[in-house]
Amino acid sequence: MSKSRKYYFYDLGIRNTVISNLNSIDVRDDVGGIWENFLMIERMKRNRYSSVYPNYYFWRTYDGKEIDLIEEIGGRLYGYEFKWSKSKKNSNAKEFLDTYDNASFEIVTKEKYFDFVRY
C-alpha cells in the first residue's frame, strides 16, 4: 500500500473556484468532500485556539476502510468520521477500535458538529 495524502483548503471558496463549481450545496455531488474539508479546518482552528496540538492522521486499511481524522493526544487516539447524512453508518469504527486499545471513535454529523469545532 502506498502512502497517500489528503489536502484541505483553508478557504472553501478558493477550493470551489479551483474546481469551477460554485453551485448551491443542495445540487452538489461533492458535498461529502466539502463537509470533510470544513470540519478538518475548523477542528484545526479549534485546537490551535485551545492550545491543543495533536498529531493528525488519516486511517485506511489495505481493503479500503477509512476514518477521516485521527488525533493523537498524549498517547491516546481519537477517531472521527465526518458524515453529511446521518443515515450513513460507519462499519470501520469496529475495526479501528479493535486494532487500537487506547482509541475512541465518534461520527460527526451536521446535526451535532458544533461541539466538535467549538473552543
Index terms:
119 residues, 4 helices, Trna Endonuclease, Chain: A, domain 1, alpha+beta, 4 strands, globular
- Annotated CATH architecture: 3-Layer(aba) Sandwich
Distance between the termini: 37 Å
The class by helix and strand makeup works out as: alpha+beta
Question: Helix proportion of residues, in percent?
Answer: 25-40%
How much is the radius of gyration in Å? 15 Å
pLDDT < 50 stretches: none
What is the subunit arrangement here? single chain
Q: How many beta-strand elements?
A: 4
Q: How much of the polypeptide forms β-strand, as a percent range? A: 15-25%
Q: pLDDT average, as an integer?
A: 91
Question: Order of strands side by side in the largest beta sheet?
Answer: 1-2-3-4
Please write out the topology:
Elements: H1 12-18, H2 31-49, E1 55-60, E2 66-73, E3 76-83, H3 92-99, E4 103-109, H4 114-117
Parallel strand pairs: 3-4
Antiparallel strand pairs: 1-2, 2-3
Could you explain the architecture of this structure?
This protein has 119 residues and is an alpha+beta fold. It contains 4 helices and 4 strands. The protein has helices at 12-18, 31-49, 92-99, 114-117; strands at 55-60, 66-73, 76-83, 103-109. The chain has a 4-stranded mixed beta sheet with strand order 1-2-3-4. β3 (76-83), α3 and β4 form a beta-alpha-beta unit. The chain is globular. The model has no long low-confidence stretch (mean pLDDT 91).
Task: Offer a concise description of the structure.
By secondary structure, the chain is α+β, with helices and mostly antiparallel strands. It has one domain: Trna Endonuclease, Chain: A, domain 1, CATH 3.40.1350.
